[in-house]
Amino acid sequence: MKTLKNYINGKWVESGSDKTEEVFNPATGEVIAFVPISTKEEVDESVKAAKTAFETWKNVAVPKRARILFKYQQLLVDHSDELAKLITVENGKNLKEAKGEVQRGIENVEFAAGAPTLMMGDNLATIATELESAVYRYPVGVIGGITPFNFPMMVPCWMFPMAIVLGNTFVLKPSERTPLTANRLVELAEEAGFPKGVFNIVHGAHDVVNGLLDHPDVARISFVGSRPVAEYVYKRGTENLKRVQALAGAKNHSIVLKDANLDNAATQVLNAAFGSAGERCMAAAVVTVEETVADQFISELVQKADNVTIGNGLDDDVFLGPVIRKQHKDRTLGYIETGEKEGARLVRDGRRDKAAQEKGYFVGPTIFDHVTTDMKIWEDEIFAPVLCIVRVKDLDEAIKVANQSRFANGACIFTRDGGSVRKFRENMDAGMLGVNIGVPAPMAFFPFSGWKDSFYGDLHANGKDSIEFYTRKKVITSRWV
Ligand code: NAD
C-alpha cells in the first residue's frame, strides 16, 4: 500500500513525519493509500522553494506562462477519464458527476489561460495638463491553498491555475480524505512544464494549515471547507496580516411555488439534494414549498427518490454513491434520529435502503416533511443525502424562512412567474441564485459568491475577483518633460 509523497521544489519527497492517515474508498471501505500528516518544517521547506521560484516566475512573460496552461489544459482533457475515475474512487460520487467535476476544473484552466488580457492594467492619457496615469498589475508572491474533500479536482483548480498564471507560486494542502487526485494534478502540471517550485503539495492536516497561516512568506490564503474551519482560518490568517478568502459551509434553500412545473422541480431537487450524496456546498438542503402543491410535489419527489440506484459510483447507472467516511455516515444517522425526535415527519427513510446495510458508507435518500426553523435538522449543514421540507403559505414566507439561515451560499426558485423571480432576486440573502435549476454553481468566469456565514473575506474565488485577489497594483503618474 503506497504512502503518498509531498511535491516540493519539483521533486516527489517522502514526508519525514511518522504520522499517516488511511485513505479509504468510501464505496467499499477498503484502504487505498496512506497520506502523510506532514509537519510545519515541511511547510517551511515548501514555502522556501515557492519563494525562490517566485523570483524567476514573476518575470516570465505572461503569454509564456499562459502557454504552459494551454498545454496543461490539453493534458487534463487527455486524462479526463482517468482523473474522473480517481475522483470516484477516493470521493464516492458517481462517474458521471466526477466527469462533470473534471470538466469544471478544466474550465478554470481555460479561463486562467486568458491571463494576457485578464492581467491588463488601465490608463488615462490626460489626468491634468500633460500628466498621465497608468495601473499595472503584479503577482503577490506565495499563495497557500487549503481544500475540502468534496471536489478533489475542481476546488484546487479554482485556485492554483489562476494564481500561478498571474505570476504567483503555490503551496497546496489538499484534503487528507481525498489526496490522490491532487497528486495526479501535480504530475500533469510537471509534464506541462510548470517550473520547479512553482506548484508544491504538502499533505496533512491542521499542522500544515497552521504552518501556512503563520508563515511570514505566504502572502494570501485561499480556503474552501466547513464553516467553523473557515472562520478559524480567516481569523488566524488575517491576524497574521494576510489577505484571506475563506469559502465556507451552506444550507441552501429551494423554493417551489404553486405555478412551477412540478415534475421539473422534483427532478431538479432530487439531483440537487441527493447528487454527490448531498456533499455539495450548493446542494439543496431545504425545500420550501407552497402548501397548496406540497402533497403533490412531495409524492413526486419520493417516487423519484425510490427509483434511484444506490451503489459504487464506478458501476453503470449508479446515481447515489456513499458519503465520505463511516464517521460521516454515523453523524448523518444521528441527524435522522434528531429529526424524528424534533417532530419532523420522515417521509422517506434512507436507513432502510439495502445499500445502507452494506460495507460502504451508504445512506439512501432521506426526506423530512413538516420541518420548522427551530429544528436542528433545518439549522445545521448535514452535508449528506438528507432533505428538509418546510411548508409555507406563499413566496414571502418562503423567503423569510430561507433568510433566517446563518448560511447564504445558493438559493433556487421554481416558478413560471417573472414577478416572483424578481421578488426572489431582490429579497433573497444568498450569493448564487437559480431559476428553475437545482444547482446554480457559477462557471469559472463568474465569482463563487457566497454571503453571510458561507464566506469570509471580500474577494471570492473565480471570475474577476480571483484576478484581484491574486494580484496587486501599481499606479504610476508621469509627466514627460
Ligand atoms: P473541512 O473544513 O473539514 O476541511 C477543509 C480543509 O481544512 C481540509 O484541507 C482540512 O484538512 C482542513 N482542516 C480541517 N479541520 C481543520 C482544523 N481544525 N484546523 C486547520 N485545518 C483544518 O471541510 P470538508 O469536510 O473537507 O469539506 C466539506 C465542507 O466544505 C462543507 O462544509 C462544504 O459546504 C464546504 N465547501 C464549501 C464550498 C464553498 O464554495 N463555499 C465548496 C466546497 C465545500
UniProtKB/TrEMBL annotation:
Residues reported to bind NAD(+): F149, K173, E176, R177, E381
Entry's Gene Ontology molecular function annotations: malonate-semialdehyde dehydrogenase (acetylating) activity; methylmalonate-semialdehyde dehydrogenase (acylating, NAD) activity
Keyword line: NAD, Oxidoreductase
CDD domains hit by this protein: ALDH_F6_MMSDH
Pfam families (alphabetical): Aldedh (PF00171)
Matching InterPro entries: Ald_DH/histidinol_DH (IPR016161), Ald_DH_C (IPR016163), Ald_DH_CS_CYS (IPR016160), Ald_DH_N (IPR016162), Aldehyde_DH_dom (IPR015590), MeMal-semiAld_DH (IPR010061), MSDH_GmP_bac (IPR023510)
UniProt-listed PANTHER family: MALONATE-SEMIALDEHYDE DEHYDROGENASE
Its job: Catalyzes the oxidation of malonate semialdehyde (MSA) and methylmalonate semialdehyde (MMSA) into acetyl-CoA and propanoyl-CoA, respectively. Is involved in a myo-inositol catabolic pathway. Bicarbonate, and not CO2, is the end-product of the enzymatic reaction.
Protein name, per record: Malonate-semialdehyde dehydrogenase
Protein's gene: iolA
